[in-house]
Fold Zinc finger Sec23/Sec24-type domain-containing protein.
Amino acid sequence: MYRNTSLYFWINDKMLQNSMVNSSMSIWPCNKSLADDIGVPIVLEYRPYDSDNMFSDLLTTNLPKCSYCSAFITSAFSIDRDKHVQCPFCGNDFQLPNSYDITYHNFKIDQKIDDFSLYLCFVIDLDCSEEYSQVLKVYFSVALKALLPDMEFMVAFIRKNRFHFVKLFNDIPKIFSFDPSISLFETLEINSLLNNVKNISLIEDLFFCDLHPNSQNNSQLHEIIDFSNLFSSCPDNTFIKFIMFSPNHVSNKCASLLSFDWISPIEKNNCQNIDGFYLNPKDIDNIEIQIQTMIQRYKTSTYAVNVSTQSFIPKQFEISPMVCTKPSYRNGSSIIFTISFPRLFSTFKEIHIQFVSNYIFILPDGIAKRRTQVNSLKFFTSKDILPILRTVDTSVVWRNLNSRNEEKEFIKKLLEIYKSKIIDGMPGTTKQFDPFFTLLPNLQWFLKFYLTNTKPINSKFVIENERKMVRFCQCVSFWENQENKIEEMSISYADSNKLLKSPPIVIVDNCTIIDLFMDDQIIKNSRLDREIERRILRRFPVPTVRIMPRETLFLRWPYKDNYDHIRETFDPTYKKM
């Protein structure tokens, strides 16, 4: 493998223009010349905070920048022996001092912060129906009981377009009401609103027995009050994460200024403009377990807050957004950048892009650090058909197809292009058609969505980068024993009788469910045990792990008729092939 080559640009086919990208690793390219012919992305997925990134750690903040555009100078710049530099973004020519030795490419600079506080704020929306209110109170109770002993939290509710805090004084609940248009931090200290984990039963009693929904505003779903002004003057050393319990939705302004995880009794698409998770019982199973895990991971997992990212690209191009700010990012979450090309760019052999992110990240032990992260990328132009098809982002295209017929016709077109332009043109290949887009895993998502008649769910749920595909096409791994994994692949082409019969351990991963087919108990701290634990810890919603006898695999083996199912569904397409 030479490099990840899943981001490409194609300008000729309107059908695939404006498609978006999800990175994936594959066996392509198979040699260096193909690796160099990778193309420029239409849309680039960038992760400002990802603990898996192998960036250089630098100790100094006094690093050279372009004197004109302020991009960081890295080894990706053209620097001659005399330290003469030309910026690939703005074209500025300048001289570096001889003392600078630019050996770094992608790097991060961390500085410890001595005083930083993270608070949770539970908010129950009582401007809803009695039916929804009762469900939300149950979810709220689950969340409170999941709090770890040293977590600092506040409790509030919305009723009649006002924001109310609940505070315990001598084990007696008191309610403080605020107009959401004022600034809370100009009125009192936030510490005065904190509650004690040991007394959550008193708070539960108040909500279940004494607080009732607003009967005047319970018939229709609506936008909740904008309480961003209430928290607008939050000190720099304080961050508040809101856990919202509501069937209603939030305004774009409020969502852009405050950090939310949202728990709802119903599915509601316009709640997905928040920066965190949106949980509802239709999208996920075992919602109470998922709520517990989400609350506990505020303490046990790391994430970044007050994130700002600036992008740099050659002045002949445009990238949007140029600057992106967001209240928080979980480990592995991404920003999508769109690149616009000049009409004539064939003279460009390579294109540089740089992302500079600044944020604070909080470790599980409570230590906070301020980080500057610089990621420098370089792409080469290409018109190769395989990288062209790799630009198709299924989840984005699928949302723009308005009917089942449009979906089917689009897949037919992709099948025809895939066969005529790739399979038939590959040296040494047979003429038997591959119905599963084996060389293009991103296109397998179309088959999954169409054949199961489902729409993609909130992509923010998929935190573990290398497991993105299991959301759409199950992954299967074969183990000789609990210390030796033989092979791992997409389940679409893992149908060999030899593989099914010989390995004593088989794992089928469907993202939210992990099935282990084995006859022995899992050995603690074995490689298999560590593998399952890693998948659980890096994923949300938390997957359910089931252990079943090895022989039951034949009864449960999914997609065993997948080939015939696809052929039958797209029969007119296959008749022409």
